[in-house]
């Protein structure tokens, strides 16, 4: 654990030191904003080899954020560029291809979550503006007109001007504040792993829609031994999930190969298999008295478009910009007008992105020949309309809407 004693008052008390919480602490530090970061996990366990085989798609806007807070050099060689996205309805004819112009760069980059964590944690250890409290959690949160105080399970009391909830989907801080959630369960489960495959992926991400759920292959860097790799996110109905989880590896791989139609040749497992339930939630409020909610604590969505983490990183960019501008004018980080500005800026953008993702999930989940034919007709129309494809690509790159400075180039 790093950090000072309990009298050390800082601008922010950030509960949750995961990818979004720690990015906030670093981005805030670059703007001269100090923070306490509290996380109940042990960083060594989170970054242990093999602890988390997941990978994340980092949009162009999110990459700009990482570069702008000084992580570009650490991360540059670790991400695999997404050069194109192929969208298909069950591998039938009429696929949709998104490929940016040569001057636009890639559609994003795929990173192992472990590599992102290592870069963030190394930078945080060297940053005096961050006091990092690990293997402990908040047991009491007090918010009042003059500031916030958080008592930790180890007895320490942390003080600040603004409390930030970045604890993820099950955020106790959000729930304690009484924020209403719009939520539903897709009754689907994501099967997540990584695959070695015979043919190179050439930077193409595949989004294959089946009535039972989407099946995504996302390009990863070749392994150190030169073998080609992709991340797999296979959505199965909850009623079938227990059976799929129990499958021996060889049978699981046969099922995966069946859905890949040989696009990458022979395959084998490259990471442990994990699974998690897919649910949607959207917090009706993002702020309270001296409280801001960010990342999965505010919004959880279907992984179909790979935008969950990117939405959280947009929250970070907006919150830091709003706070830094306010503090330059002499306002405190916990000032109600600043928080209202954050909520207004984020609410619409988040709701739009989540509505589109939810709509896609439902549209492609309608079984039958007629809906499939209609989807392929629609995809064919989009394929022939460069302007419409540009809108979709800007959305995928995170470059649409009003962007905070940290997410611009």
TrEMBL record:
Keywords assigned: FAD, Flavoprotein, Membrane, Monooxygenase, Oxidoreductase, Transmembrane, Transmembrane helix
Pathway this chain belongs to: Cofactor biosynthesis; ubiquinone biosynthesis
Reported cofactor(s): FAD
Residue ranges of every copy of the FAD-binding domain listed in the record: 11-347
Molecular function via GO: monooxygenase activity
Acyltransferase keyword on record: no
Family under the similarity heading: Belongs to the UbiH/COQ6 family.
Protein name, entry field: FAD-dependent monooxygenase
């Amino acid at each position: 654990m790093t950090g000072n004693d309990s009298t050390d008052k800082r601008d922010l008390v950030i509960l949750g030191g995961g990818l979004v919480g720690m990015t906030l602490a670093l981005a805030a530090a670059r703007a001269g904003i100090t923070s306490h970061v509290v996380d109940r996990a042990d960083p060594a366990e989170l970054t242990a080899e093999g602890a988390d085989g997941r990978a994340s798609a980092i949009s162009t806007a999110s990459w700009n954020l990482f570069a702008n807070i000084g992580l570009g050099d650490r991360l540059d060689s670790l991400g695999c560029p997404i050069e194109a996205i192929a969208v298909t309805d069950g591998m039938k004819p009429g696929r949709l291809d998104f490929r940016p112009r040569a001057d636009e760069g890639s559609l994003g980059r795929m990173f192992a979550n472990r590599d992102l964590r290592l870069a963030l944690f190394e930078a945080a250890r060297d940053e005096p503006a961050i006091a990092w409290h690990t293997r402990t959690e908040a047991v009491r949160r007090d918010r009042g007109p003059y500031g916030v105080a958080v008592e930790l399970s180890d007895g320490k009391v942390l003080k600040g001007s603004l409390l930030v909830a970045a604890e993820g989907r099950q955020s106790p801080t959000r729930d304690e504040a009484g924020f209403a959630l719009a939520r539903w369960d897709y009754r689907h489960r994501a099967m997540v792993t990584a695959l070695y495959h015979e043919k190179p992926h050439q930077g193409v991400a595949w989004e294959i829609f089946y009535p039972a759920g989407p099946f995504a292959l996302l390009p990863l860097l070749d392994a150190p031994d030169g073998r080609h790799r992709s991340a797999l996110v296979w959505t199965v109905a909850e009623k079938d999930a227990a059976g799929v989880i129990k499958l021996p590896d060889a049978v699981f791989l046969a099922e995966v190969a069946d859905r890949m139609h040989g696009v990458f040749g022979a395959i084998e497992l490259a990471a442990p298999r994990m699974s998690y339930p897919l649910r949607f939630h959207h917090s009706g409020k993002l702020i309270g008295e001296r409280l801001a909610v960010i990342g999965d604590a505010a919004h959880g969505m279907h992984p179909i478009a790979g935008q969950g983490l990117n939405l959280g990183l947009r929250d970070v960019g907006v919150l830091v910009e709003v706070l830094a501008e306010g503090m330059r004018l002499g306002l405190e980080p916990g000032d109600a007008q600043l928080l209202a500005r954050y909520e207004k800026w984020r609410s619409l953008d988040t709701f739009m992105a989540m509505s589109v993702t939810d709509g896609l999930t439902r549209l492609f989940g309608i079984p039958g020949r007629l809906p499939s034919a209609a989807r392929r007709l629609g995809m064919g129309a989009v394929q022939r309309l460069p302007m419409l494809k540009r809108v979709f690509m800007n959305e995928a790159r995170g470059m649409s809407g009003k962007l905070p400075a940290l997410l611009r180039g």
